[in-house]
């Protein structure tokens, strides 16, 4: 698994878990779409557009300003911090671990297409 894939995967897993739990605190303001996603060749805007195109069921959650702000905050974190966030969600909501394979599969599509957007 590439480092780039891992970084996007952990950010999106965190989004999926946070959105599914609907327990997202409003902790950040919106990041500019041109913000780089660490460890990728994509910007935040490209990742979001790839989610819109490839994971519409997740994209719906991004319509909520609190969830979008949390997603943007987490996706733009350094790798270690993003991994820690994902583990915190999984520890808080262990029942969500069962969804990890499905989320990882969808993230692969997002990761492979974000540079096209």
From TrEMBL:
<feature type="signal peptide">
    <location>
        <begin position="1"/>
        <end position="30"/>
    </location>
</feature>
<dbReference type="InterPro" id="IPR032407">
    <property type="entry name" value="MHB"/>
</dbReference>
<protein>
    <recommendedName>
        <fullName>Haemophore haem-binding domain-containing protein</fullName>
    </recommendedName>
</protein>
<keyword id="KW-0732">Signal</keyword>
